[in-house]
Amino acid sequence: MKAAWHHRIRTTVRLVTVLATVWCLPSGARAVDPLYQPQMERLAEIMGSLYFLEPLCKAGGADWRAQMEALIAADEPDEDRRQRLAGAFNSGYTSFARLYEVCTDSASEALTRLLAEAEKTARDIHSRYAE
Length: 131
What we know:
Blueprint lengths: L1 H20 L15 H20 L7 H12 L3 H21 L5 H25 L2
Helix pairs in contact: 1-3, 1-5, 2-3, 2-4, 2-5
Organism: Paradevosia tibetensis
InterPro entries: CHP02301 (IPR012645)
Pfam families: DUF2385 (PF09539)
Protein backbone atom coordinates (compact mmCIF):
# COMPACT_ATOMS: atom_id res chain seq x y z
CA MET A 1 0.00 0.00 0.00
CA LYS A 2 2.79 2.44 0.90
CA ALA A 3 4.56 1.78 -2.41
CA ALA A 4 1.37 2.71 -4.25
CA TRP A 5 1.09 5.89 -2.18
CA HIS A 6 4.68 6.84 -2.90
CA HIS A 7 4.14 6.33 -6.61
CA ARG A 8 0.91 8.33 -6.60
CA ILE A 9 2.49 11.06 -4.47
CA ARG A 10 5.41 11.38 -6.90
CA THR A 11 3.05 11.47 -9.87
CA THR A 12 0.79 14.08 -8.28
CA VAL A 13 3.73 16.23 -7.20
CA ARG A 14 5.10 16.09 -10.75
CA LEU A 15 1.74 17.19 -12.16
CA VAL A 16 1.41 20.05 -9.70
CA THR A 17 5.00 21.07 -10.45
CA VAL A 18 4.33 21.00 -14.19
CA LEU A 19 1.21 23.05 -13.65
CA ALA A 20 3.18 25.59 -11.63
CA THR A 21 6.14 25.83 -14.00
CA VAL A 22 4.36 25.69 -17.35
CA TRP A 23 1.64 28.15 -16.44
CA CYS A 24 1.12 30.21 -19.57
CA LEU A 25 -1.96 32.25 -18.86
CA PRO A 26 -1.63 36.03 -18.94
CA SER A 27 -0.73 37.42 -15.56
CA GLY A 28 -1.65 40.66 -13.88
CA ALA A 29 -4.74 42.00 -12.21
CA ARG A 30 -8.00 40.42 -13.27
CA ALA A 31 -11.37 41.96 -12.54
CA VAL A 32 -13.05 38.58 -12.95
CA ASP A 33 -11.89 35.20 -11.71
CA PRO A 34 -10.28 33.03 -14.38
CA LEU A 35 -12.32 30.07 -15.59
CA TYR A 36 -10.08 27.64 -13.70
CA GLN A 37 -10.59 29.27 -10.28
CA PRO A 38 -13.04 26.65 -8.93
CA GLN A 39 -10.66 23.83 -9.89
CA MET A 40 -7.72 25.70 -8.35
CA GLU A 41 -9.62 26.17 -5.10
CA ARG A 42 -10.51 22.47 -5.02
CA LEU A 43 -6.89 21.54 -5.75
CA ALA A 44 -5.77 23.86 -2.93
CA GLU A 45 -8.24 22.20 -0.56
CA ILE A 46 -7.01 18.74 -1.55
CA MET A 47 -3.39 19.81 -1.07
CA GLY A 48 -4.22 21.07 2.43
CA SER A 49 -5.85 17.73 3.23
CA LEU A 50 -2.80 15.88 1.93
CA TYR A 51 -0.55 18.15 3.99
CA PHE A 52 -2.33 16.84 7.09
CA LEU A 53 -2.91 13.19 6.10
CA GLU A 54 0.45 12.21 4.64
CA PRO A 55 2.49 12.68 7.82
CA LEU A 56 -0.32 11.20 9.89
CA CYS A 57 -0.30 8.02 7.81
CA LYS A 58 3.47 8.15 7.31
CA ALA A 59 2.99 8.19 3.55
CA GLY A 60 5.29 11.24 3.32
CA GLY A 61 7.47 12.45 0.57
CA ALA A 62 5.76 15.60 -0.63
CA ASP A 63 5.79 19.03 0.95
CA TRP A 64 2.26 20.06 0.01
CA ARG A 65 2.61 23.49 1.59
CA ALA A 66 5.65 24.23 -0.60
CA GLN A 67 3.79 22.86 -3.62
CA MET A 68 0.86 25.15 -2.84
CA GLU A 69 3.14 28.15 -2.49
CA ALA A 70 4.74 27.35 -5.86
CA LEU A 71 1.34 26.98 -7.49
CA ILE A 72 0.15 30.33 -6.12
CA ALA A 73 3.38 32.02 -7.17
CA ALA A 74 3.10 30.64 -10.70
CA ASP A 75 -0.55 31.69 -11.04
CA GLU A 76 0.17 35.24 -9.78
CA PRO A 77 -3.34 35.76 -8.39
CA ASP A 78 -4.59 39.07 -7.09
CA GLU A 79 -4.82 39.37 -3.29
CA ASP A 80 -8.46 38.24 -3.14
CA ARG A 81 -7.81 35.07 -5.15
CA ARG A 82 -4.59 34.40 -3.22
CA GLN A 83 -6.53 34.60 0.05
CA ARG A 84 -9.22 32.26 -1.27
CA LEU A 85 -6.61 29.71 -2.40
CA ALA A 86 -4.83 29.89 0.96
CA GLY A 87 -8.19 29.62 2.72
CA ALA A 88 -9.10 26.52 0.71
CA PHE A 89 -5.74 24.94 1.60
CA ASN A 90 -6.30 25.71 5.30
CA SER A 91 -9.86 24.42 5.14
CA GLY A 92 -8.68 21.10 3.70
CA TYR A 93 -6.11 20.80 6.47
CA THR A 94 -8.47 21.64 9.33
CA SER A 95 -11.27 19.42 8.00
CA PHE A 96 -9.12 16.33 8.43
CA ALA A 97 -7.37 17.57 11.56
CA ARG A 98 -10.77 17.66 13.27
CA LEU A 99 -11.50 14.06 12.27
CA TYR A 100 -8.25 12.20 12.83
CA GLU A 101 -5.59 11.99 15.52
CA VAL A 102 -4.12 8.72 14.24
CA CYS A 103 -4.03 7.06 10.87
CA THR A 104 -7.07 4.83 10.54
CA ASP A 105 -8.33 2.75 7.64
CA SER A 106 -10.66 5.59 6.66
CA ALA A 107 -7.81 8.12 6.81
CA SER A 108 -5.73 5.86 4.55
CA GLU A 109 -8.63 5.54 2.14
CA ALA A 110 -9.15 9.30 2.16
CA LEU A 111 -5.45 9.79 1.41
CA THR A 112 -5.63 7.40 -1.54
CA ARG A 113 -8.74 9.06 -2.95
CA LEU A 114 -7.39 12.59 -2.46
CA LEU A 115 -4.16 11.72 -4.26
CA ALA A 116 -6.17 10.41 -7.21
CA GLU A 117 -8.38 13.51 -7.22
CA ALA A 118 -5.37 15.84 -6.98
CA GLU A 119 -3.75 14.10 -9.92
CA LYS A 120 -6.91 14.31 -12.01
CA THR A 121 -7.61 17.94 -11.08
CA ALA A 122 -4.05 19.06 -11.82
CA ARG A 123 -4.15 17.23 -15.15
CA ASP A 124 -7.52 18.79 -16.05
CA ILE A 125 -6.38 22.32 -15.22
CA HIS A 126 -3.18 21.87 -17.18
CA SER A 127 -4.79 20.33 -20.26
CA ARG A 128 -7.65 22.84 -20.40
CA TYR A 129 -5.93 26.09 -19.54
CA ALA A 130 -2.14 25.81 -19.79
CA GLU A 131 -1.62 24.26 -23.22
